[in-house]
Write a structure and sequence with these properties.
CATH superfamily: Histone deacetylase domain
CATH topology: Arginase, Chain A
Oligomer: single chain
Helix content: 25-40%
Bound molecules: zinc ion
CATH architecture: 3-Layer(aba) Sandwich
Radius of gyration: 19 Å
Number of strands: 10
Low-confidence stretches: none
Mean pLDDT: 97
Structural class: alpha/beta
Shape: globular
Distance between the termini: 28 Å
Largest sheet: 8 strands, parallel
Order of helices and strands: EHEHHEEHEHEHEEHEHEHHH
Length: 373
């Protein structure tokens, strides 16, 4: 695929993000009498391997390295309740604990690492706003898009993107923000935080009925002044390139064009990949590359090119790095010279899943109709 123009691309990560310790859960299941302890699904490995792939290539020289800082309590409190913040801080000072549900584990020092993640999103957003870079990718842990105001959940302690948006709102003259969430799970936290806000357009493309269960429906469109500014695109399990492109063409592009954001965030999860153990979608790296380029075009048209992606989920240790890489390549407008060694075989195996199927089209059309796009 022909790359779009060259862009100065910020790359933000930190060794501490890989020290966030999710314990000995077996995938997302608590160990017990009949559940052998294992490795938590949200382990450092997927993300570390993404960073490692960049580190062993010359592509790292094409990126501008950004250094995260911790978000302050005041910055976190613009999004989250002080009880949630203090609770996390207190647990973190001892042995760690749970973020607010029964599967999101963190260890000692976990609060500090999550604060560094949220602060990293601020640093990336600032760097783009101040034109130190054109676009930025923040590879951070823990992820953020499930975290609601009063508690963490779904492996997320703080809503990193919301913390960055609230920072920009207070320190710049920007007023309109869009969040495009292509993580395979519903971006419930971001939806919840901005549900009645007409100035933050939240769009979540996710596998229908995956997580959190029973929400993320088309009918959740926002409330009060925010009515119409929350768009859920539940996509049936088994969808691939065809369904995602159809959703982008018919929902994401017209919705963003109508809204005209001044800054676009991508909640960038790679768990809709064919190789992901927590979902049943069939994407490969070329679709992520295409989606990234479409977001950049929208940003060029409305938001002076301003895009920040924060890393969310993605649980295939082998395939996340290749999906992440193509997004970075799309951002930079340059090829890294690294070949996705998995894509050909794997696309061939899922050939029929890559075409838009009638039941997938029906779901996306219903969303389009609901939002009059
Ligand atoms: Zn996810």
């Amino acid at each position: 695929m022909a790359m779009s123009k060259l862009r100065k691309t910020g790359w933000l990560t930190h060794e501490y993000f890989f020290w966030h310790d999710t314990g000995n859960y077996a995938s997302s299941f608590k160990p017990g009498e009949f559940m052998q302890p294992g490795k938590h699904a949200e382990s450092p490995e997927t993300k570390r391997r993404f960073k490692s792939l960049i580190d062993v290539s010359t592509f790292k020289h094409d990126l501008i390295h950004l250094e995260p800082r911790k978000a302050t309590e005041e910055e976190l409190a613009r999004v989250h309740s002080t009880s949630h913040i203090h609770n996390m801080q207190k647990l973190s000072e001892n042995d760690g604990g749970l973020m607010g549900d029964n599967e999101s584990v963190f260890g000692p020092f976990g609060f500090d690492i999550a604060s560094l993640g949220a602060g990293g999103a601020i640093v990336a957003a600032d760097a783009v706003y101040k034109k130190e870079v054109d676009v930025a990718y923040a590879l951070l842990r823990p992820p953020g898009h499930h975290a609601v105001k009063d508690h963490g959940m779904g492996f997320c302690m703080f809503n990193n993107i919301a913390v960055a948006i609230e920072h920009l709102r207070r320190t710049t003259n920007l007023t309109k923000f869009a969040v495009i969430d292509w993580d395979v799970h519903h971006g419930n936290g971001t939806q919840d935080i901005y549900y009645s806000d007409p100035n933050v357009l939240t769009i979540s493309l996710h596998q229908e009925d995956l997580y959190p269960r029973f929400i993320g429906t088309i009918q959740e469109t926002g409330e009060g002044a925010g009515k119409g500014f929350n768009i859920n695109v539940p996509i049936p399990a088994g969808s691939g390139d065809g369904a995602y492109k159809y959703a982008f063409e018919n929902i994401v592009k017209p919705a963003v064009s109508k809204f005209k954001p001044e800054f676009i965030f991508i909640a960038s999860g790679f768990d809709a990949s064919y190789h992901d153990p927590l979902s049943r979608m069939a994407l490969h790296s070329p679709t992520y590359s295409w989606m990234a380029q479409e977001v950049l075009k929208l940003a060029d048209e409305f938001a002076q090119g301003r895009v920040v992606a924060t890393h969310e989920g993605g649980y295939s240790e082998v395939y996340v790095p290749f999906c992440g890489l193509v997004v970075l390549e799309a951002f930079a407008g340059k090829s890294s010279g690294i070949k996705d060694s998995i894509v050909e075989d794997s696309q061939a195996m899922t050939r029929r899943d890559q075409t838009l199927l009638p039941h997938q089209k029906e779901m996306i059309d219903e969303c389009k109709l609901t939002h009059k796009l």
